Amino acid sequence: MYIPEHFRARHDAEALAFMRANPFAILISTTDAGPFATHLPLSVHAAEGKTEEAILRGHVAKANPHWRHLEQQGQCLTIFHGPHSYISPGNYVARESVPTWNYAAVHVYGNARIFSSEEDVHAILGELMNTFEPEYRSQWDELSPKYRENMLRQIVGFEIAATKVEAKFKLSQNRPREDQASVIASLDKSKDSAVSGVARMMKELRLGTVTPDEEEE
């Protein structure tokens, strides 16, 4: 991914927090017929908070051929995407300005391995339950064994070990502080969460109020 230095996330914690806050990702594999993609939720794990040791886990329907692609070619790309918004040049002080788009994304390159045994798939399913709805665990446990076994037979679990992680937060870091504050004020008014989410991320990074260099001094 092309990342100018002022848009590069500088800390592993930022990238991991973003991935966990936006777990509905796009998994992409290379096949003989061309790229193949699946949209799916993933759990994110990282030893000592290091992105280079990140592990992603999830599952796909057995009817989805993606698990066979992962089995044949383990190298894959996972894209975590978050809030985004059109940025009008009307937010800038300088008249000679052009429109752009603010957004955040994390690309995880890695190697996948498949889990097909009922025990392994059940473990991955448990992780996803704990991540997205812990309260559902009791309901799942109360379902009939026949129903649960049937559900487990219809999915294939996988794990991706990250080999490289790229995090890009394009949030007007290259603009003067006054322009950043104007962008935040404009986007913050939107009822669209994808738009207001950009303003929230900008505020979390203290854009419009203090520059990263000043913060380190």
Briefly characterize the structure.
This protein has 217 residues and is an alpha+beta fold.
Topology, element by element:
Elements: H1 12-21, E1 24-31, E2 34-41, E3 43-46, E4 54-61, H2 66-72, E5 75-87, E6 100-115, H3 118-132, H4 136-142, H5 145-153, E7 155-170, H6 177-187, H7 193-204, H8 212-216
Antiparallel strand pairs: 1-2, 1-5, 3-4, 4-7, 5-6, 6-7
Helix pairs in contact: 6-7
Summarize the structure in words.
With 217 residues, the chain is α+β, with helices and mostly antiparallel strands. It has a single domain (5-200), classed as Pnp Oxidase, Chain A (Roll). The protein has helices at 12-21, 66-72, 118-132, 136-142, 145-153, 177-187, 193-204, 212-216; strands spanning 24-31, 34-41, 43-46, 54-61, 75-87, 100-115, 155-170. Strands 2-1-5-6-7-4-3 form a 7-stranded antiparallel sheet. A hairpin with a 7-residue loop joins strand 3 (43-46) and strand 4. Helix 6 (177-187) packs antiparallel against helix 7 (193-204). The longest helix has 15 residues, at 118-132. The chain is elongated and about 65 Å long. The model has no long low-confidence stretch (mean pLDDT 93).
